[in-house]
Request: fold
Amino acid sequence: MEWILFDKDGTLIEFDHSWEKIGVRLVNSFLDTFPVANKEATLRKLGVVKDTISPDSVMGSGSLDEIVHAFNDESGKDVSKWTRDTSQALVDSREPENNWIDGVYDMIQSLRQEGYKIGIVTSDSEKGVTQFLEETHSKDAFDLVISTEAHAAEKPNPEVLKPLFDHYDVKPEDVAIVGDTNNDMKTKVNAKLGLAIGVLSGIAKKEELVDADYVIETAVSVPEVLKKYTQNN
Reply:
């Protein structure tokens, strides 16, 4: 294994509740802009309950593409552009919370000392990732950062990893991905990566990480998983 790619929110840092606020605001704006027959039923279907979001719903763990499809279905029309533009505007205006999960920063430094290349693959925008790197003074800890803008590929689409494979001489089987949702794990499957490590420090429960090769409490245990993987292969 040469590269270890980490999701950001819920994996490197504590789950950022500003994302939940954005999700609720996006749904409320959708319902205000495109009235539906049964507002309460739509809220439940999208996963919004009393201004909170169910982790296993499309709003809780779905990709932007999946949210777009859900909004199209609920409105009965193509609201793709509105959804992407509104989502990006909300993301750009949010005030992020950037608190490292205990021990994860030191773990990354130890992996770097062992010779691994370290990257971030996140659904956050470039602005959000830059804020994280600046606030935590951790820019030098990462060899590659892949963010997701409104009209770009996103996890679990393997195209999201083009910046890695276009600029570095590495085979997919020599890349591991670490994340807190099954979309992270599906990225491993779709891109034919070597290893998918699910963490329980974010929004997913263990039984939801169905495509993970290993499931651990937090990313602090990633080095142990890598040793097991190396011994078994």
In short: The two ends are 10 Å apart (CA to CA).
